[in-house]
Batch of 3 targets.
Target 1
Amino acid sequence: MSEEMKALEARCALCGNCPLGATRTRLVFGVGTAPSELMLIGEGPGEQEDLQGEPFVGPAGKLLDDMLEMIGLKRSQIYIANTVKCRPPMNRDPAEEEMTACRPWLDEQIRLVRPKIIVCLGRIAAGELIKKDFRITREHGQWFEKDGVRYMAVYHPSALLRDVSKRPETFADLRELRRVLRRDTTLYEQ
Ligand code: SF4
């Protein structure tokens, strides 16, 4: 982790720019390697993440690790963050204004990670980062390009835990992701 990223996290730990800062147990800033050619972005911390201070722990995190293993990657090779760094109460979706308040932190993370590819985990992150009217059921697995970065969205691991019928489509999305990562990044040479 770069010194710049550590300094950014330390500043973020003092953030109270939206109401979520007052109810969090721990800041869930992000985890992994920066810079990295691949960045994953989910919506926000859940209960376990809030307690442990790390994104994607618990059953959804285990499934995310399995998804990464399927394409030959480990979480330590990439960078993982969320659209909001503090847990929305009762695991509700982050509100538009909360994501807007938190966006400068995410933008700074993206600047430091310098990813070639960003994978949005779920509808909320895709709506924030790819386009407002993103339809996850129709548009997961498709490529989008913005400012020289390629984006893809896949179903959120929590959705895959709730509905196993979505898994085959997600496996196909991950195979497509692996194909492009192999072709356009050095992740498999590490
Ligand atoms: S969610 Fe983001 S903007 Fe809101 S208090 Fe936490 S770090 Fe600050």
Target 2
Amino acid sequence: MAPAPGNFSQPKPAIRIRKMTENDLGEADRVTRLAFGTFLKLPDPMAFMGASDYIRTRWKADPDAAFVALSGDELVGSVFVTSWGSVGFFGPLTVRPDFWDQGVARLLMEPVLECFSRWKTRHGGLFTFATSPKHLGLYQRYGFWPRFLTAILSRPVSTGDENLSYDLLSERTAGEGKKIISSCRQLTEKILEGLDLSREIKAVQVQGLGETVLIFEKNELAAFAVCHCGPGTEAGKDVCYIKFAAVAPSADAPKYFDRMIRACSSLAKRKKLGGLTAGVNFSRQEAYHQLLEMGFRIDTLGVAMQRPNEAGYNHPGVFLLDDWR
Ligand SMILES: CC(C)(COP(=O)(O)OP(=O)(O)OC[C@H]1O[C@@H](n2cnc3c(N)ncnc32)[C@H](O)[C@@H]1OP(=O)(O)O)[C@@H](O)C(=O)NCCC(=O)NCCS
């Protein structure tokens, strides 16, 4: 039987996966906003992410770890992979809505797993919608299992922290900067073997995305926070976003955690930003409780999925902020 008029569907060309290039950035950004905005049923799907940028910043941070899916020469999906030493995570992973449920995300998972295997990633992870059977089912196929929820919290920037003592990496010489980045690595090593945030710190430095806040105690690095500030970064308009922060394990960790948050708040004030945002996995109970005590409120919840199904640094006693978005 002939199809009804107007009901012809053209066969779609096979999907190819390749590395993202600079020319892809505009369309990758558009498809990412459209995919999330459509999934979340926003009245204007393109409003998703507002003035935040994940696409250009992540591509610039590591162009070898960003991939696109193409149908013919049309970009229909993309994914970014991040190496933090022994820890790796991926996202945003997005597919253009008219290509959903046709196996495109599964094809994009292949380069993700290749990166993890090339990097010898020991703890792989992602942040996703905790209530979506599709998302959980998709990632479980690849050995990522849902563990604790991760909350994204925020609070308005408060006054009173102006006289706090802290340092900014951007105010140090290049030589000092190198030593400090290596101190940051030594600090995170004490939390989890091989955890290394050098890539994130350098991305902020090189791309001018914000600042790395440093808390020293008697010349020893006690805590640091990698912050994105304002539009064109992962923070977005009027926000200072703590993309990653960690405190050296010790009995005094709660004290330095408090100081670090207040230092980030002070930085936000200096940058004339109105809000402070940070993510924490609920398994890091003390850090979560302390954020609540400091006036943070939850904006969004997701679930951390991990491969293998092990805690990594997501366990009590760890004063670390991140969210793997
Ligand atoms: C999530 C997203 C990337 C998936 O892309 P996709 O190309 O539609 O996914 P695929 O067709 O490759 O894979 C879908 C898989 O999900 C799983 N799945 C779907 N529905 C499921 C359900 N109800 N229960 C369990 N698993 C399910 C299956 O494994 C399925 O593969 P299969 O049909 O071959 O078994 C896409 O929907 C998207 O862009 N959404 C908006 C943005 C987003 O949420 N990104 C992910 C953020 S973590």
Target 3
Amino acid sequence: MHNKRANNHSPSKPYLAGHAVPVRELHSGHRSEILNHLLQLGEEDRRLRFGTQTPDEVIHHYVEGLDFNRDTVFGVFDADLKLIGVAHLAYLPEINGQARAAEFGVSVLPKGRAQGLGTALLQRSAVHSRNSNIQTLYVHCLANNKAMMHLAQKAGMTVEYAYGDADAYLKLPPANPSSIVAEAANEQWADFDYALKENLKLANQAWWWFLGRPGHAR
Ligand SMILES: CC(C)(COP(=O)(O)OP(=O)(O)OC[C@H]1O[C@@H](n2cnc3c(N)ncnc32)[C@H](O)[C@@H]1OP(=O)(O)O)[C@@H](O)C(=O)NCCC(=O)NCCS
């Protein structure tokens, strides 16, 4: 089920070139990269992501508090292995007799937008939730967040508005062999993509060492 494809090719927008977006599951070793990603968000993007004004100290606190054993964090890396998109899937406490639920929060840096990264992170989170026996996926956001509302509706989420906020939710069917294979395939593709970018980066560094980095006098 994964990932947006498009036909036009632009080197600055690699995921519009018809490639599936590789989404990797992150772990605690990625904490500083997640922090760096979030600190790059401007004031308005932070407000849209966290629902309120969010100074640097709050972001530091949020990242320190991420519990990778309890929640799942996904990322998309650019060609320099910098995190260009991050999604946090937070599992909500179980309440007796109620469906298990998770809340989704996402950010994509401005230079990576409109290439399907947000969609891919939402799709991956939905499949992962489904495979983790989660029955409802929520997104809580500001009602004027047009891009997120569009993403949510495109993913088939039902949106309810109240007092300037919006809650979007998606009822997930139980896991089946194809949802498990879909997730495993994306995970493998993301590992392969990361290894490729890592090798390319090392090869570039070796050439820069010999020849000097373009635009940098030695
Ligand atoms: C919301 C966000 C994650 C989307 O990321 P993205 O990588 O650009 O998402 P995609 O490229 O997959 O899709 C964006 C879609 O929204 C649409 N869109 C963008 N801005 C829009 C707007 N102002 N009004 C309506 N639709 C809009 C795009 O056209 C695109 O639709 P399409 O796929 O049908 O062409 C990104 O804008 C972001 O990080 N915003 C700041 C943080 C935030 O708002 N997080 C969500 C709350 S948790």
